[in-house]
């Protein structure tokens, strides 16, 4: 376990009743948005727990966020090395267990989840071949997952997107199955920023506990530090969804 | 090491050097002048060994020793008032200066050049520019929190510009994005003078608690010296190949890139690893390896400390085992750091290295001999006083004189020139002129570049391009933060180096104040041609004199920076380009002032006065003219304007503010309207009468110390009273009109925002895809 190298301390949680829920945030070498994910958990009212990729035991956490970045430099295939971290095998087991540990993969975290086969498909280089940073509109296609329950179905949200390898691909059969089973969790609206098949921005597993997406909800949680339009806090719902689920379930 | 290693090279030991005084050495090929070589012999009392020659040649280079500029740079240390010293915790001379932010926080920032590598190989040149400046920040004990990039390339339509543009932007993005540092601003200027010599400058800013400040010195006899991070390879060796006589092994890799190759992943790991070392107080002194590699790190650490160090060079971990001692000493391989560790902390240090899987090698220890001794398999190949390498290099008083052509240049005003013929005056002509201006390469929207940079990572970016300054939160509890802006106008500085340098400072200062921040400190990157050309040397001397005078008048100290000389193609130098970065403080970043207006009905005020100042302007550039005198500098007015903007931000009197600079009022009005797609109705009649200028001049003049602000109706009286009380010119020139979808200026044909946006945003994609 490592202490997250935070600058200062995040603002105090809004809802203390959610403090009891512990969300782990995994740091790999090259992870970049770990402090941001931890901040998002705290702003949503939960307790963030730092997890280290080399840990051989999963600490006492109720859910896990695998944040964005360039783990191992993305020099091989994004996520391909991280998938073999000792902690990942624990996370894979816990996600597939009866307890269905909630796992959210953001950007590089999504890539790690596909490499781990917790989610189908893969990400390749953006169709325009450049890194792209923009505020992106997404439609919540499935609000029954543990990470999206606080959104309305069909709700459009604005969150930052920033990546180089964000083009979601899968074979037609897989894509058809994802659509048929309602496992497309988010779609790009208005503009497909990377050539992703069927405008897919994020998907869920069948059980709804593992969700991955390329855009960054953890960067839309605090007014003034996220997208300029709307309140800039459209991403907060990911974190409140899982916290409410955890706390509600414990009652 | 085995004796076989030893046999691979003809090792030129100190003993051998003493016994063979007449051996010819390739000092000229290594860039040393005869007098400099003679000085080395005098200092050592014998001829240098090959390894010593390698060290002196890189450390006494212009880049490392500042030998041509040192005499002039002293002014930054001399023209300092008590006010300027108040918040300076570490001044010029360390890896980067440190400024007190209050509440126990300190901030460090620095700007540097990576110009010539970025022309040779734009991607790696620009990438390693970021890498180097970030390591300077880490070396101070700080966590880097943001980067910025001022860029200057050749004409936009020149076939080679796309090569440099694509490479440099991708390199900055590829490296910076992988470090988790938001890119919060910069500049993009196109001008033919930079065609064969683009300017790629990089700025990094970091924050720390006061107690975490680290300095580059090696103290405490018996403390261990460790090199960690990436392995040492043959990249960036440059001139060292002439020392090949050291080697009789002809199987070594022949193609050595002169430009270093970056590994951002290694740098990201190095950042986290160093911060963990600082947190555990595990290092006594630390130095990054940049230009001149191990030569620089060992000599600087030793000369800043108790004075002695002993290092075994065969212990350096190598990527290329065929490297000779001289090459190892000169290698500029990236992502390396050197630290001094007490024996008690060795184990804890190694644990941190192992945790982050960073390679390290213990090379030697600190001594009290006053000598820097480097051995190769036990044999002494370097035995020098480290001060003579690091600090006592040659200093030149280069001759300089006002160029013979300067008077004629200054006499060639734009107004009345051939290029000024047919100046727009009819409403449709003026609208076409505004549209042409905002579509021009230097005034157009730069998001083609900035969208390739991550501005969000870290979660503390409160403002970024295209606003006037980048703003980053430092303390999440209080909202304390910093604002940064960089500016330079090579055209102004070419017309008048003294005033041009002051104008660069004035604009950066104004940008920071426009964001609501209190300007505190300056870092400068002085990009000039050859100091051996008396014309260029005069430009450099005048710019430094101007900048140091202006810093004193504005009360902001220079805390560090960099000089980049020999920026020229053949005998044609670039325009003198002193890029000035200003750092300011915001008590609460929530109070920052953005540049675009949003609220319908808010009053738009123009602060400051407008004179007929078109020489050197963007309009003159569009018409192919460069001559006359740059806009008048009025630092007292800049200071007053700054105070108004800062107070207005603090007291919530303005919702938006945008400084007037290149492109004048026309550019500012268009930018503030397009920022959020909210139009405005503007009437300038009162301004024309008050300032005695025509409508064209009011729109395109680049008079200084001006800004536009949008003021909520409820604050208008208070705002006007404040300006009046301070005796600062202010004029209501219009209102925000959210419904119109256009920018309406009396006397100018109405311009729809859609058409303006198409013009403004279309330029870079048109040329770069």
What does this structure look like?
The complex is a heterodimer of chains A (251) and B (769). Chain A has 251 residues and is an alpha/beta fold. Chain A is 21% helix and 23% strand. Chain A has 5 helices and 11 strands. Chain A has a 9-stranded mixed sheet, with helices on both faces. A two-stranded antiparallel ribbon of chain A has the order 5-8. In chain A, helix 2 links the parallel strand 3 (63-66) and strand 4 (103-106). Chain B is of the alpha+beta class. The radius of gyration of chain B is 27 Å and the shape is globular. In chain B, strand 2 (97-102) and strand 3 form a beta hairpin. In chain B, the strands form 5 sheets. In chain B, strands 8-10-7-11-9-12-13 form a 7-stranded mixed sheet. A 7-stranded mixed sheet of chain B has the order 23-25-22-26-24-27-28. Classes of the chains: A alpha/beta (251), B alpha+beta (769). At the A-B interface, helix 1 and strand 6 of A face helix 10 and helix 11 of B.
Tell me briefly what this model is:
The complex is a heterodimer of chains A (251) and B (769). Chain A contains five helices and eleven strands, in the order βαββαβαββββαβββα.
Main sheet record of chain B:
7 strands, mixed
User: How would you sum up the global shape of chain A?
Assistant: globular
Helix content of chain A: 10-25%
- List low-pLDDT spans of chain A: 1-10
Number of strands of chain A: 11
Quaternary structure type: heterodimer
> How many independent structural domains of chain A?
1
CATH class of the largest domain in chain B: Alpha Beta
Instruction: Summarize the largest interface: chains and residue counts.
Output: A-B, 37 and 44 residues
Report the CATH C-level class of chain A.
Alpha Beta
Q: Major sheet of chain A: size, sense and barrel closure? A: 9 strands, mixed
- Biggest β-sheet: strands ordered side by side in the sheet of chain A: 2-1-3-4-11-10-9-6-7
């Amino acid at each position: 376990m490592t202490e997250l190298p935070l600058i200062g301390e995040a603002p105090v949680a809004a809802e203390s009743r959610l403090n009891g829920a512990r969300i782990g945030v995994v740091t790999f070498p090259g992870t970049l948005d770990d402090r941001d994910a931890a901040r998002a958990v705290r702003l949503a009212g939960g307790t963030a727990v730092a997890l280290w990729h080399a840990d051989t035991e999963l600490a006492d956490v109720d859910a896990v966020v695998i944040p964005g970045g360039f783990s191992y430099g993305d020099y091989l295939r994004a996520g391909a090395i991280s998938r073999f971290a000792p902690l990942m095998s624990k996370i894979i087991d816990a996600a597939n267990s009866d307890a269905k540990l909630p796992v959210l993969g953001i950007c590089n975290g999504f890539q790690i989840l596909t490499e781990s086969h917790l989610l189908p498909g893969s990400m390749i280089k953006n169709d325009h071949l450049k890194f792209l940073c923009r505020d992106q509109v997404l439609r919540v296609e499935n609000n029954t997952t543990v990470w999206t329950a606080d959104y309305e179905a069909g709700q459009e949200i604005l969150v930052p997107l920033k990546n180089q390898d964000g083009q979601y691909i899968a074979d037609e059969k897989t894509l058809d199955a994802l659509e048929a089973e309602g496992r497309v969790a988010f779609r790009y609206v208005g503009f497909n920023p990377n050539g992703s098949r069927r405008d897919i921005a994020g998907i869920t597993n069948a059980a709804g506990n593992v969700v991955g997406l390329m855009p960054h909800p953890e960067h839309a949680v605090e007014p003034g530090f996220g997208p300029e339009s709307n309140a800039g806090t459209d991403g907060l719902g990911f974190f409140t969804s899982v916290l409410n689920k955890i706390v509600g379930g414990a009652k | 090491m085995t004796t076989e290693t030893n046999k691979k090279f003809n090792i030129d030991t100190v003993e051998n050097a003493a016994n063979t005084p007449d051996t010819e050495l390739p000092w000229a090929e290594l860039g040393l002048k005869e007098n400099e070589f003679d000085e080395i012999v005098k200092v050592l009392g014998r001829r240098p060994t090959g390894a010593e020659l390698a060290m002196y040649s890189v450390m006494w280079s212009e880049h490392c020793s500042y030998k041509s500029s040192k005499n002039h740079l002293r002014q930054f240390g001399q023209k300092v008032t008590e006010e300027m010293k108040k918040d300076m915790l570490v001044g010029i001379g360390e890896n980067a200066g440190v400024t007190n932010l209050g509440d126990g926080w300190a901030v460090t920032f620095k700007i540097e050049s990576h110009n010539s590598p970025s022309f040779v190989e734009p991607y790696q040149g620009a990438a390693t520019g970021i890498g180097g400046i970030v390591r300077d920040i880490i070396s101070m004990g700080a966590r880097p929190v943001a980067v910025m990039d001022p860029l200057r390339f050749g004409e936009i339509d020149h076939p080679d510009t796309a090569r440099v543009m694509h490479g440099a932007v991708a390199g900055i993005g590829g490296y910076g994005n992988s470090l988790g540092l938001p890119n919060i601003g910069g500049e993009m200027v196109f001008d033919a003078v930079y065609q064969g010599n683009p300017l790629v400058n990089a700025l990094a800013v970091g924050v720390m608690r006061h107690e975490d400040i680290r300095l580059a010195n090696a103290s405490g006899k018996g403390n261990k010296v460790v090199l960690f991070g990436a392995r040492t390879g043959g990249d960036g060796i440059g001139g060292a190949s002439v020392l090949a006589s050291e080697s009789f092994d002809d199987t070594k890799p022949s193609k050595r890139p002169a430009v270093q190759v970056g590994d951002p992943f290694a740098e990201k790991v190095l950042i986290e690893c160093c911060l963990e070392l600082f947190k555990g107080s595990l290092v006594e002194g630390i130095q990054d390896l940049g230009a001149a590699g191990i030569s620089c790190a060992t000599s600087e650490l030793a000369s800043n400390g108790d004075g002695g160090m002993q290092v075994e060079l065969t212990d350096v971990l190598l990527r290329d085992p065929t490297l000779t001692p001289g090459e190892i000493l000169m290698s500029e391989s990236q992502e390396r750091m050197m630290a001094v560790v007490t024996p008690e902390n060795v184990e804890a240090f190694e644990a941190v290295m192992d945790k982050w899987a960073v390679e390290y090698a213990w090379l030697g220890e600190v001594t009290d001999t006053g000598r820097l001794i480097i051995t190769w398999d036990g044999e002494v190949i370097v035995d020098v006083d480290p001060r003579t390498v690091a600090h006592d290099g040659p200093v030149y008083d280069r001759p300089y004189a006002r160029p013979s052509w300067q008077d004629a240049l200054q006499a060639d005003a734009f107004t009345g020139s051939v290029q000024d013929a047919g100046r727009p005056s009819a409403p449709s002509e003026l609208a076409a002129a505004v549209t042409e201006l905002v579509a021009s390469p230097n005034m157009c929207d730069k998001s083609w570049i900035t969208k390739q940079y991550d501005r969000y990572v870290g979660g503390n970016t409160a403002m970024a391009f295209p606003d006037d300054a980048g703003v980053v939160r430092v303390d999440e509890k209080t909202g304390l933060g910093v604002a940064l802006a960089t500016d330079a106008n090579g055209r102004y500085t070419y017309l008048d180096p003294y005033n041009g340098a002051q104008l660069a400072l004035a604009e950066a200062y104004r940008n920071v104040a426009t964001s609501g921040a209190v300007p505190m400190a300056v870092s400068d990157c002085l990009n000039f041609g050859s100091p051996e050309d008396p014309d260029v040397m005069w430009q450099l001397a005048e710019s430094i004199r101007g900048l140091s005078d202006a810093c004193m008048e504005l009360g902001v100290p220079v805390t560090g920076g960099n000089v980049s000389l020999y920026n020229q193609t053949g005998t044609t130098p670039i325009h003198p380009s002193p890029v000035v970065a200003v750092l300011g403080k915001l008590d609460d970043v929530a109070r920052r002032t953005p540049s675009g207006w949003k609220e319908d009905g808010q009053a738009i005020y123009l602060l400051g006065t407008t004179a007929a100042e078109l020489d050197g302007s963007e309009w003159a550039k569009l018409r192919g003219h460069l001559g006359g005198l740059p806009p008048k500098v009025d630092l007292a007015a800049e200071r007053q304007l700054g105070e108004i903007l800062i107070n207005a931000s603090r007291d919530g009197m303005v919702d938006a503010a945008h400084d007037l600079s290149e492109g004048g009022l026309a550019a500012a009005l268009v930018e503030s309207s397009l920022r959020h797609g909210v139009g405005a109705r503007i009437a300038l009649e009162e301004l024309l009468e008050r300032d005695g200028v025509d409508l064209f001049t009011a729109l395109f003049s680049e008079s200084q110390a001006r800004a536009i602000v949008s003021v909520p109706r409820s604050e208008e009286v208070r705002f006007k009273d404040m300006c009046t009380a301070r005796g600062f010119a202010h004029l209501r020139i219009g209102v925000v009109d959210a419904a119109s979808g256009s920018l309406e200026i009396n006397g100018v044909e109405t311009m729809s925002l859609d058409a303006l946006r198409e013009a403004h945003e279309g330029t870079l994609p048109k040329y770069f895809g």
